[in-house]
Design goal:
By secondary structure, this protein is an alpha/beta fold. Helix content is 28%, strand content 24%. It has helices at 38-45, 93-96, 137-141, 143-155, 171-182, 195-203, 230-238, 262-268, 282-291, 293-297, 309-317; strands at residues 2-6, 12-16, 26-36, 60-68, 80-83, 121-124, 128-130, 163-167, 187-191, 208-210, 220-225, 240-248, 271-274, 300-301, 323-327. The strands form three sheets. Strands 3, 4, 5, 6, 7, 14 and 15 form a seven-stranded mixed β-sheet that branches. The chain has a six-stranded parallel β-sheet with strand order 10-9-8-11-12-13, with helices on both faces. β1 and β2 form a beta hairpin. α1 (38-45) packs across α11 (309-317), α4 (143-155) packs across α5 and α4 (143-155) crosses α9. It starts with a strand and ends with a strand. Bound molecules: zinc ion (2 copies). Residues 37, 39, 59-60, 145 line the site of one zinc ion (ZN).
Length: 330
């Protein structure tokens, strides 16, 4: 089969390699859409924790089951599926505590294990979820980032009737704004300095999408920092209401640090909470994607073929698009 391969010298190539052979508890999937995100950018250009080079990237994907391992039940050839890429050990203390995203031996598809930027990809059956075919490949491939957002909203201790501010108009920020509205937030404001992203936010139904410079001093009950920028984090800390929650969703550099004033946290009894990946939210995201399909569709840019992986990542890095997804032609 053909596959995209990223090497440790940060080069990318299309190679010919064997179709993965599946374990008894796995299925073989023929991908039909694959999203790329900041993780892929890191794998390609800087390195990302857990990456085993050379690696076939692609962790946000949908496709059809073409082969089923002998121990698999509940999945058949031809099923349309989306795959939770986070392959966990199931036995470490974090797995046992129901915190699979913190698994000590986490081995995600497309980071450690071979990913979906290929003609075929193997996945454990327990990570593979049937999706209704009418949802379409693009939206099904966006279930993974949606699941991350559902986890972040849960980590926020809930948004019902609260005023919510989201920094960052990328996929995570926009989906967070959309889900906050769905979950009954009183008010949802999204802040991003890029006019193009604000325009997409508005067409996705996020009415209050503004430049962060226009935010003023009004405080919010829940603030999501989904920009991954120091400026956003600094401003976010100032705009959390008394007893409010700041959720760190955006990925900063592993060694970045930000000066902050502890008095702000003490005085207002703030909660500062991290949200990492999707935990156990994939099945719930399968259902929620159907509810937000019309809004989510607005985020997608699928101009690139999977074999143009490097060009697609470079284009995504320019920040002009929201969710870049790769097409599988023919
Ligand atoms: Zn991703
Ligand atoms: Zn584990």
């Amino acid at each position: 089969m053909l596959a995209v391969q990223i090497r440790s010298d940060h080069s990318v190539a299309v190679i010919e390699t064997d179709v993965p052979s599946i374990a008894p508890d796995e299925v073989l999937v023929k991908p039909c859409s694959c999203g790329i995100c900041g993780t892929d950018l890191h794998i390609l250009h800087h390195g990302f924790p857990g990456t085993r080079y050379p690696v076939i990237p692609g962790h946000e994907f949908s496709g059809h089951v073409v082969e089923v391992g002998r121990d698999v039940s509940g999945l058949r050839e031809g099923d349309f599926v989306a795959v939770d890429p986070n392959v966990t050990c199931g036995v470490c203390r974090w797995c046992k505590m129901g915190r699979p995203n913190l698994c000590e031996k986490l081995d995600p598809i497309g980071v450690g294990r071979p990913g979906a930027a290929a003609e075929y990809v193997a996945a454990p059956a327990r990570n593979t979820f049937i999706v209704r075919e009418s949802l379409g490949g693009n939206l099904a491939a966006m279930i993974e980032p949606l699941a991350c957002v559902l986890h972040a909203v849960e980590r926020s201790q809930g948004v019902l009737a609260k005023d919510v501010l989201v920094f960052g108009g990328g996929t995570m920020g926009l989906l967070t704004a959309i889900v906050s509205r769905l979950r009954g937030a009183n008010r949802v404001v999204l802040a991003d300095p890029m006019p193009g992203k604000l325009a997409v936010a508005k067409s996705a139904g996020v009415a209050e999408a503004i430049d962060p410079g226009l935010l003023g001093t009004e405080a919010f009950d829940v603030v999501f920092e989904a920009a991954g920028s120091r400026a956003a984090l600094d401003q976010a800390l100032d705009l959390v209401q008394k007893t409010g929650v700041l959720v760190q969703v955006g990925v900063h550099g592993e060694h970045d640090s930000v000066p902050f004033n502890p008095f702000r946290i003490y005085e207002r009894e703030l909660h500062i909470i991290g949200s990492n990946s999707l935990a156990d939210k994939f099945p719930e995201a399968v259902d929620v994607m159907s509810e937000i399909a019309d809004q989510a569709r607005v985020l997608i840019d699928d101009r690139f073929e999977v074999w143009d992986f490097g060009a697609a990542v470079d284009e995504m890095a320019k920040g002009q698009t929201i969710k870049t997804q790769l097409r599988f032609g023919g």
